[in-house]
TrEMBL record:
This is Uridine 5'-monophosphate synthase. The keyword ATP-binding does not apply. Keywords: Decarboxylase, Glycosyltransferase, Lyase, Multifunctional enzyme, Pyrimidine biosynthesis, Transferase. The lineage of its organism: Eukaryota, Metazoa, Ecdysozoa, Arthropoda, Hexapoda. Residues 33-247 form the Orotidine 5'-phosphate decarboxylase domain. The chain holds residues 215 to 475 of 476 of the full protein. In the N-terminal section; belongs to the purine/pyrimidine phosphoribosyltransferase family. Its EC number is 2.4.2.10, 4.1.1.23.
């Protein structure tokens, strides 16, 4: 069966990872398959933006290492917003080292990512030790991984064989796997996993630094995305509150058309 023809409600039942289940449930309930990438360097700007747009998103994606005034209080407030608006938190750390180092990077240091992020991104490049290093639960709370199978950037070095091996290794960690960061429908078939696709913007087709943008319709209807990641299309807009609604509506409409709802 074609996973992209199934509703998020059906796929929630097919997911093994608790974070994937929660995400499918949030998407269906909030009618939003939009992930906002809050690539801002100040905590007040991030919290302010999320206060204004949080009701429209299913997931927020952070790059915690670009924040200049990171604090524990920021984490507390971020989690409060996530609870209040009902979205999950993805830290886009792209772990890519040996298992032991990743285990330390995940749980220690300034950020203690494993304490607050529901899920993280991981490169398959180092081999499966990187997946063994990320716990499926921290202090009894479920966690998840989005494994990078493809990237949106021009000239990236990922090959068809790399993609195939990435999908194979993921199948060994059903409890942990929330989904894949990828660009194509054919990359994987398991309907219990989520396709997270970055490189989405209405205003432009690239950023001059290798990023490649597609439209919401293309990534949902043709490329098989379940959740679209939008950063600057919303974050750098004059009116983010207006843009977030435009993206959310376009993405949801494309999903509804895809599943024939
Ligand atoms: F894995 C990937 C990828 O293949 N492309 C990406 O663009 C991740 N990203 C992230 O999505 C990137 O690090 C940014 O945080 C975000 C896209 O932001 P934009 O402003 O919409 O280009």
């Amino acid at each position: 069966v074609d996973r992209t023809k199934l509703t998020y409600e059906k796929r929630e039942k097919l997911a093994n990872n608790p974070i994937a289940k929660k995400l499918f449930n949030i998407m269906a309930t909030k009618k939003s398959n939009l992930c906002l990438s809050v690539d801002l360097t100040s905590t007040s700007k991030i919290l302010d933006l999320l206060t204004r747009v949080g009701e429209h998103i299913c997931l927020v994606k952070t790059h915690v290492d670009i924040i200049e005034d990171f604090s524990e209080s920021f984490v507390t407030q971020l989690k409060q917003l996530a609870d209040r608006f009902g979205f999950l938190i993805l830290e886009d750390r792209k772990f890519a080292d040996i298992g032991n180092t990743v285990s330390l990077q995940y749980s220690k240091g300034l950020y203690k990512i494993g304490d607050w992020a529901d899920c993280v991104t991981v490169h398959s490049l180092p081999g499966e030790g990187v997946l063994k290093a990320i716990s499926a639960s921290v202090n009894g709370v479920s966690k998840g991984v989005f494994l990078l199978a493809e990237m949106s950037s021009e000239g990236n070095l990922i090959t068809p064989d790399y993609i195939e091996q990435t999908v194979k290794v993921a199948a060994k960690y059903p409890e942990l796997m929330t989904g894949f960061v990828c660009q194509n429908k054919k990359t994987f078939s398991d309907p219990g996993l989520i396709q997270l696709t970055p490189g989405v913007q209405l205003q432009s087709s690239g950023d001059g630094l290798g990023q490649v943008y597609n439209t919401p319709e293309k990534i949902i209807l043709e490329n098989g995305a379940d959740i679209a990641v939008v950063g600057r299309g919303i974050v750098a807009a004059k009116n983010p509150e207006a843009q977030v609604v435009i993206y959310r509506d376009a993405l949801w409409k494309a999903y509804a058309e895809r599943v024939g709802a």
